[in-house]
Amino acid sequence: MTWLQVVVLAIVQGLTEFLPISSSGHLVLVPSAAGWTDQGLAFDVAVHFGSLLAVCLFFRDDIVALLRGSGQLLTLKHDSPEARVALALGIGTVPAAIAGLAMAGWIEANLRSPAVIVVTLSAYAIVMVLADRFGRRDRNVADVTLRDALVIGCAQALALVPGTSRSGVTISAGRLLGFDRRDAARFSFLLSVPVILLATVYEMGGLIVGDEAVAWTQLWVAALVSAVVAYVSIDFFMRFVSRIGLLPFALYRLVLAAVILYVLA
After folding, report:
1. Where are the alpha helices (DSSP H) in 113-211?
2. Model pTM greater than 0.85?
């Protein structure tokens, strides 16, 4: 990889990981449009690690509270808000973990195409608008139930398909369950922590047992760039989501799908 490719793709990952516009879709489309070869497993590990650092740093108070709640769960105390949210996040992680182990290889081999991304960008744009328009706004993260966690977790599993957007589909699920915009986004981003961590560990295992040469300097730079841009992206979204809602991101998805369709035609 060239340094230009490293920096551009790290910015793309950091910018799109937590905005509801599909990071996986952009990481397929940008190299395709630029004529670059696939960035490979090692790069994916690095930029996901950067995204993980960003979300943990931004929600550091929540992470500390969740660790405290996890400790309470180990002592069979589950009536505190921290313990309930920690348990909900654990339940919500299960569907994506199972789907990832069972189907990630098949999806990687069969669904990483511009045509699939056109469909998922468009379809989930409509879902986002409807969920944001008709969902109630009278619940917050402290109200989350295990049923909520399972529904949002199943929605998260759908994001294995490129073009879906993990944050977009989980925020939409949260809105349909009655969470206000900010808390739907907050739960979505917190739910990303165990998922990204599991994916990073899994992908790192592939690196360790694989024969791929690793350019460590480029990977550290990619992780740092991804972390900085992802932090700014989260800050922007959390500041403005209550006011702007999901409509601008849905329109962006529809425009991007139209552009891809025009290029493919």
Report:
1. 114-134, 146-158, 166-176, 181-209
2. yes
